[in-house]
Amino acid sequence: MPATVIVGLQWGDEGKGKTTDFLAEQVAMAVRYQGGDNAGHTVVLGDEVFKLRLTPSGVLYPHIACIIGPGVVVNPATLIGELDMLTSRGIDTAKVRVSRNAHVIMPYHVALDRAMETRLDGEKVGTTNRGIGPTYADRASRLGLRMEDLLDETTFRHRLARVLPDKNTLLATMPGTSPFDAEPLVAQAMAWGERLRPHLADTTWLVQDALRRGDHVILEGAQGTLLDIDHGSYPYVTSSSPIAGGACTGGGIGPLQVDEVIGVMKAYTTRVGSGPYPTELTDEIGSGIAERGHEFGTVTGRPRRVGWFDAVALRFAVAVNSVSSIMLNKIDILSGIDEIQLCVAYDIDEQRVDRWPSSAEVLARARPVYERFPGWSEPINGVRTLAELPENARRYVTALEVAAGVPIVLVSVGPERTQTIERAYRPMRHRPTVATG
Ligand code: IMP
């Protein structure tokens, strides 16, 4: 049974939750490997809509053990709220496990994220204001607080005392902020620890044991490749590694334990926050896509920027993630558009470029070179095989597949699990069987 990484190939919000949901029946464990409550998965299950930020969407299935790995930054208040919400809706959360090593997003991280964005003014990253960057910064500086620290008051007090004066000094330089007192933070942290104690574990061994048993483990990335701290257009990125390699560091597996990397992409692109976006649409075609596609942030409610599909970015994302197959989402949203454009290259400083530039400054100068495709008018939500798709939609899917160079094995034509076209072929790297016992 494989370890499958599910990774976003664009700027996040590609519909990774649906991919996990679609594979759920064959899965024994779902692992979230990076990011925090900046992410939002929407899963539609019959009449019910679940919005999850931290817990892997596999939690909706009683047979799936859900893991929040050491690469995730956890706002305990969000996690507790999510566990309570799920419990109140009849979902069993007993199998949710959170790495003892995952870092805690403290209230001062959230305050700093907001204040730093305000200070950047016109240069804003457009963060989700969840404290993600400051928490990862503390992790890298070895000044972070980890989930296991919530279980021991003495350790927590000691670690907090090392950082709080510096946080307050910094906050004092930023307008609209107030300092934090240690005592209320300690009291809050101990209450979080008490509530979350049964969920904390050394998750790396849980994942390793599952793989040794031969269980199918999926590792879910949040955000997307183009927001990766190393591979996105810095500084307009998040502070973690959404790429498939992040599944190893943040989930607790080695590169040779990954059998399959499913890349997830929409039939168009969206981006939340600032940063260069060569194929952005600011006309009524863009607003039509945004409206039909409900392109508003799950976490912030902000309208997402919308654009044509970018095959330059896709080729980069396929390479950097070693994608083995693709799920294409939301192609139904393009129904009714007369002519669809697909960006196949950029013009940068009068040069034709077909490789994704790593520099945000260079990307900002990129002018898209489009290939044009006639659209289709019929709704396709009821279609269940590629052969039933209108010919022009099939042509567009084929063009995306050719650009990717790997097969598109799942095509989503609506939000529900059943609204999916499945192709039989699922390429997978061979992994030799590991001896058990
Ligand atoms: P942060 O992750 O909150 O620090 O935000 C950094 C950048 O990543 C901003 O442009 C955000 O809009 C973007 N971002 C973070 N999480 C998501 C997500 O789940 N979907 C889309 N964009 C995101």
Account of the protein in words:
The chain is of the alpha/beta class and 437 residues long. It has two domains: 3-91 and 202-422, Alpha-Beta Complex (Adenylosuccinate Synthetase, Chain A, domain 3), CATH 3.90.170.10; 103-197, Adenylosuccinate Synthetase, subunit A, domain 2, CATH 1.10.300.10. The protein has helices at 16-23, 76-88, 107-120, 132-140, 153-172, 182-196, 203-213, 244-251, 284-292, 311-321, 360-364, 391-404; strands at residues 3-8, 29-32, 41-45, 48-52, 65-68, 73-74, 96-99, 103-104, 200-201, 217-220, 260-266, 269-271, 305-307, 309-310, 325-329, 339-348, 351-353, 367-374, 408-412, 420-422. It has a ten-stranded mixed β-sheet with strand order 9-7-5-2-10-1-11-15-19-20, with helices on both faces. Strands 14, 16, 17 and 18 form a four-stranded mixed β-sheet that branches. Strands 3-4 form a two-stranded antiparallel sheet. A hairpin with a 2-residue loop joins strand 16 (339-348) and strand 17. The longest helix has 20 residues, at 153-172. The chain is globular and about 65 Å long. The protein binds inosinic acid (IMP). Inosinic acid (IMP) binds next to helix 4. Inosinic acid (IMP) is lined by residues 11-13, 38-40, 125-128, 130, 132-133, 222-223, 227, 238-239, 272-273.
